């Protein structure tokens, strides 16, 4: 079992502490929080050892789980990597692309593993259908949330849209060609609602909308590709796969047949995979342990997290252009 320490004991940090404490792949050594008063309160309530000295905690563990506000990601990760520790770091990897690149250089220098917490990669709906997504040419994603002050330290693109950016980059095997975007600040000092159109060199277009001031929640993406339509509901954990094939010579009474202007007939059919329930946060933490123990590439590497951040920042830069 890998000795792990958590940095940051906020809402998400406490979830990580609970899951790591129960995991069969980690031994939870303790945690650090910049707010010592809050840290002691968490320790009293849940019984996890609190380390007032961040260096003492890092020196004691093999893996550092960074669940701090985004602005502190870089400093914590740099310190941990510099001490030769593997790092799991919540998304976004850092606040700037330059910081992320520096972490990649440090990772190579010290030979450690790193994973970014893009938890939607482990969403059971996305996992169930990802292998069926082949060369999508149009993607539409909506991620809407009710207002929550937590997370407003960064624009909605880095808070919410980056989830969909990462998922899309994992299935579109092509460099980004052009980005057009708009964003509006309603309550926060940074944009609370944003839309982006991302064009890839292979012709794929992704249209993404993210809002943290909505009256309802929605986390849904739709992928359109040759002879198939795939809908992924990340919130409800449901999948819909609609495919087309050449119509049979003898049509059945219940066959769904379409005919185009040239007279070509296609049959519509459904091929919905089973969605296995899971705890996505536990899965991402435990697969990281597997990557360390087996010396394999983490499912969401620091390089992939850096690419998602780069595109997210380019979306922000495109506001108002």
Walk me through the structure.
With about 325 residues, the protein is α/β, with parallel strands linked by helices. It has a domain at about 1-120 and about 280-300: Rossmann fold (3-Layer(aba) Sandwich), CATH 3.40.50. The protein has helices at about 10-20, 35-45, 55-60, 75-80, 95-110, 125-130, 155-170, 280-295, 300-320, and strands spanning about 1-5, 25-30, 65, 85-90, 115, 140-145, 175-185, 195-200, 205-210, 220-225, 230-235, 240-245, 255-260, 265-270. The strands form 2 sheets. Strands 7-8-9-6-10-11-12-14-13 form a 9-stranded mixed β-sheet. Helix 4 (about 75-80) packs parallel to helix 5 (about 95-110), helix 5 runs antiparallel to helix 9 and helix 7 (about 155-170) packs across helix 9. The chain is globular, with a radius of gyration of 22 Å. It starts with a strand and ends with a helix. The relative contact order is 0.16.
Summary of the model, kept short:
The protein is an alpha/beta fold. Helix content is 33%, strand content 28%.
Write the layout of secondary structure elements.
Elements: E1 2-7, H1 11-22, E2 26-32, H2 36-46, H3 54-60, E3 63-66, H4 73-82, E4 86-90, H5 97-110, E5 114-117, H6 124-129, E6 138-144, H7 156-169, E7 176-184, E8 193-200, E9 205-211, E10 218-225, E11 228-233, E12 238-246, E13 256-259, E14 265-270, H8 280-294, H9 302-318
Parallel strand pairs: 1-2, 1-3, 3-4, 4-5, 6-9
Antiparallel strand pairs: 6-10, 7-8, 8-9, 10-11, 11-12, 12-14, 13-14
């Amino acid at each position: 079992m890998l000795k792990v320490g958590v940095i940051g004991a906020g809402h998400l940090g406490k979830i990580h502490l609970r899951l790591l404490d129960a995991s069969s792949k980690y031994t939870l050594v303790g945690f650090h929080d910049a707010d010592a008063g809050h840290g002691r309160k968490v320790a009293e309530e849940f019984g996890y050892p609190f380390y007032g000295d961040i260096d003492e905690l890092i020196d004691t563990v093999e893996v550092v789980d960074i669940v701090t506000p985004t602005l502190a990601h870089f400093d914590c990760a740099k310190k941990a990597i510099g001490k030769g520790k593997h790092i799991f770091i919540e998304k976004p990897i850092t606040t700037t692309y330059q910081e992320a690149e520096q972490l990649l250089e440090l990772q190579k220098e010290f030979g450690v593993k790193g994973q970014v917490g893009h938890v939607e990669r482990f969403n059971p709906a996305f996992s169930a259908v990802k292998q069926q997504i082949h060369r999508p040419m149009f993607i539409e994603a909506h991620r809407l949330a009710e207002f929550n002050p937590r997370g407003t330290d960064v624009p909605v693109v880095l808070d919410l849209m980056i989830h969909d950016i990462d998922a899309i980059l994992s299935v579109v095997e092509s460099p980004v060609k052009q980005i057009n975007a708009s964003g509006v600040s309603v309550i926060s000092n940074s944009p609370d609602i944003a839309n982006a159109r991302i064009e890839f060199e292979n012709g794929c277009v992704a249209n993404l909308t993210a809002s943290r001031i909505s009256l309802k929640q929605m986390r849904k993406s739709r992928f359109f590709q040759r002879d198939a339509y795939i809908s992924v509901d990340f919130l409800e954990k449901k999948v819909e796969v609609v495919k087309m094939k050449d119509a049979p010579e003898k049509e059945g009474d219940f066959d769904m047949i379409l005919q185009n202007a040239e007279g070509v007939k296609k049959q519509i059919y459904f091929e919905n995979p089973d969605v296995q329930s899971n705890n996505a946060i536990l899965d991402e933490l435990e697969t990281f342990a597997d990557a360390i123990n087996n010396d394999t590439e983490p499912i969401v590497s620091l390089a992939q997290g850096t690419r998602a951040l780069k595109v997210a920042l380019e979306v922000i830069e495109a506001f108002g252009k």
